[in-house]
Structures are given as structure tokens and as C-alpha cells.
Design brief:
With 304 residues, the chain is α/β, with parallel strands linked by helices. The protein contains 7 helices and 17 strands. α3 packs parallel to α4.
């Protein structure tokens, strides 16, 4: 029997089978591309440093930023009351104030959880676009803002917002007034923002798919240490040219375990791995914390 001929047939088949097994394990969460070393603790407070917690809220987005001087900024609220439960775990029981809420766009997986947060916390200010949308979650959010008389800043252009000494929030998108405008693709109303603290940087993309509008702007720096990957790692966002412009050391993907959309996409993971980015996923790694002293960045995950 010609063993060389058999090897030519069998070995490629075994290789394909192994790849399929590995993909299956990865899909089910048994394999993760994220760094498994717990460099930071989710129970420590890290006073005087910038902390960003990417909450595991299922198929949705919610991130809590705590500044070196103690301000609290919440980006999105996830699809249900999970985010308010996370705030109860991560903040002292007596701390019921959020300095700033940023709603990237009014899809339910970003806005629904903010309704309960507005009921339980004093919110000093809300940043949003005011884009037209008529779902019950979004209307309830708007009604509570009005009822509680929360100041609202509508984003109508690119701008920089000084948060505190050394900490700046740069609004990269939208670059026009979207208030009371109906868009066919609501994802492309998402606020994209870059947070810089001394020499460290974070880029939050919401569900924005129109990333090409950000690439190549002479006045815009996309390069960031940490990327909150757009649209839960969807293939409709995260094109290779954009990801190359960001070249993140860490890429954080917020997605629900075994979600019906099949997110994140294999292509997005592949493009990030080509850039040698460390990919962390809330569906596999739980809550993800990033801590920066302004120069050094540390990352850890926890499964509360």
C-alpha cells in the first residue's frame, strides 16, 4: 500500500478536523484569545488611577469609567437591569451618583438598562445625539431625563471635553447634528469617542459601522491602547483599514454567550490577531477591568 498517498489524503483531513474542533471549542467558550492572567483585581479600588470596567451584560454594551479624581462616567446601559446590578457590586452602597452618562445610540441593547439606572442614581448630565427613535425603552429614558430635570448635551459636531487634569474626552463622531433625524441605520448614529489619560488612550466605538469616515482625517488620531470593538465584533464594522489605524494593544468585545447573531465574527477576531492585539471578550472572560496610571495599562477579568 502506498503510504505516501494515504498521508497526502489523511493528513489534510485530520488538519481540517482539528481546526473544526478548535473553532467549536472557542465558540462554546472553552478557548479564549484573552490573556488569562489576572493582572488587576476587580475588588480593589486603585485610587488615583483611571479605571474602566467593561461590564458583562449579555448581548449589549455598558462601560463604567472612574477617573483618577473619582468622577464616574457610564457609557451605555446594556439591554436590561444587569448594568444597575453591576454598579451595585462595583460602587460603594452609599454612592448613588453618576457624574455623566453617555448614550452612544438608542438601540435597546444600549439604552434599556439606563432606565433603571436613572431611577436609582442621581445623574448630573447626559450626553447623546437626540437621533429620532420611538421604542418604549428609549422613550422611557427620555421621559425620566425630563422628569428628573437632568441636563442634556446633544452632540452636533466633533469636539473635545476636558474631564479633569490630564484626562480628555474627544468626540470623533458624529460630525453633524442628528437630533430629531430618522436614520435608516441607527448604528451609524453612534457616538464614537476617544478617552486619553496622559499617554494612555481608549477608543469606544458604540455600534458605529461607518468607520471609514474616521480614517485618514488629518486632525483625528485613532491609534489607541484599548479599543472597545464596534458593534460587538460584527462583520459590518471593524474593517481592516480602520483596525490598522487603531492598532490596539487590547481589544475588548462585549457580546452575549452563544448569542443568536453569531458575534463576534471570525473575521473580526482574525483581523485583530493579525495586529497582535490581545482580544478580551465579556462572553468568555466576564467583566473586564482596565487600569491605567497614565502610562502603564493593566488588564484583568472576573466572573462575578
Amino acid at each position: 500500500m502506498d503510504t505516501s498517498r494515504i498521508n497526502k489524503i489523511v493528513l489534510p483531513l485530520l488538519s481540517i478536523l482539528l481546526i473544526l474542533v478548535l473553532i467549536g471549542l472557542w465558540q462554546k467558550g472553552y478557548l479564549s484569545f484573552a490573556a488569562k492572567s489576572h493582572v488587576v483585581s476587580c475588588s480593589e479600588q486603585y485610587p488615583g488611577q483611571l479605571r474602566v470596567d467593561f461590564f458583562a451584560v449579555g448581548q449589549g454594551d455598558s462601560e463604567l469609567i472612574r477617573t483618577p479624581q473619582g468622577q464616574k462616567i457610564l457609557i451605555d446601559g446594556g439591554p436590561d437591569d444587569m448594568a444597575v446590578k453591576k454598579l451595585g457590586q462595583y460602587l460603594p452602597f452609599y454612592d448613588k451618583e453618576i457624574n455623566l452618562i453617555i448614550l452612544t445610540h438608542p438601540h435597546s441593547d444600549h439604552v434599556a438598562g439606563l432606565v433603571e439606572i436613572l431611577k436609582r442614581y442621581k445623574v448630573d448630565k447626559v450626553i447623546m445625539t437626540g437621533v429620532l427613535h420611538t421604542t418604549s425603552d428609549y422613550l422611557a429614558f427620555l421621559e425620566l431625563i425630563k422628569e428628573k430635570n437632568v441636563p442634556v448635551q446633544l452632540i452636533k459636531q466633533r469636539q473635545s471635553i476636558s474631564i479633569e487634569n490630564g484626562l480628555e474626552l474627544q468626540i470623533l463622531y458624529p460630525d453633524r447634528d442628528l437630533s430629531q433625524i430618522s436614520l435608516e441605520n441607527l448604528n451609524n448614529s453612534s457616538i464614537a469617542l476617544r478617552l486619553s489619560y496622559i499617554s494612555s488612550s481608549f477608543l469606544f466605538m458604540g455600534d458605529l459601522e461607518a468607520e471609514e469616515s474616521l480614517v485618514g482625517r488629518a486632525e483625528t488620531t485613532l491609534k489607541s491602547d484599548v479599543l472597545k470593538v464596534g458593534h460587538h465584533g460584527s462583520i459590518n464594522a471593524n474593517n481592516s483599514k480602520f483596525l490598522q489605524a487603531v492598532s490596539p494593544t487590547y481589544a475588548i468585545i462585549s457580546a452575549g454567550l452563544n448569542n443568536s447573531y453569531g458575534l463576534p465574527s471570525y473575521r473580526t477576531i482574525y483581523e485583530l490577531k493579525k495586529l497582535n492585539s490581545i482580544v478580551c471578550r465579556t462572553d468568555q472572560d466576564g467583566n473586564i477591568r482596565v487600569v491605567s496610571d497614565g502610562h502603564k495599562i493593566s488588564v484583568g477579568s472576573c466572573h462575578e
